[in-house]
Input
Amino acid sequence: MSVAFRRDSDEEHREPRPDLPIPAGPNLVTLRGLARITERATYWQSRLETALRSQADDDAVKEIRRNLRYWQARRATAQVAPVADGGVVAFGTRVTLIRDDGCQQLIDLVGDDEADPGEGRIAFGSPLARAIMGLMAGETATIRGGGKTAEIEVAAITPIPD
Output
């Protein structure tokens, strides 16, 4: 039978998954962020060793190696930022914001791999962080998003506690 009429399996034509994207810009981290990156790299290294010992399937090993490459790259490029003094909004500060509706919000400005918006930790490169970076207590910023505009006031700034 001609090759043109034969159906190859999907396995033969699968594209390899690309590496996990590395955020652009410097890899600034807090001490907590560096510890998290190191913990994740160690975790994936352990998973790889276990997978190789147990002779896991190739796809599982490839996925583990993909994650390991990401965390090793992040550990290799991590730059621990100096501890902020809390005088202005900067990387490594905890900021109390007052929205124009009167609600208060407490956020920590951290590195990309440490960010968790649900826990109040936002990446220093996020739109909100960029809008308030460099402000002092009492100053305001205008935030635009979702077709709306809001004013937020920086009520307090402190270094993130250890």
The chain has a mean pLDDT of 90. Helices lie at 31-53, 58-77, 127-132. The longest strand covers residues 148-159. Strands lie at 27-29, 78-80, 93-99, 104-110, 121-123, 140-145, 148-159.
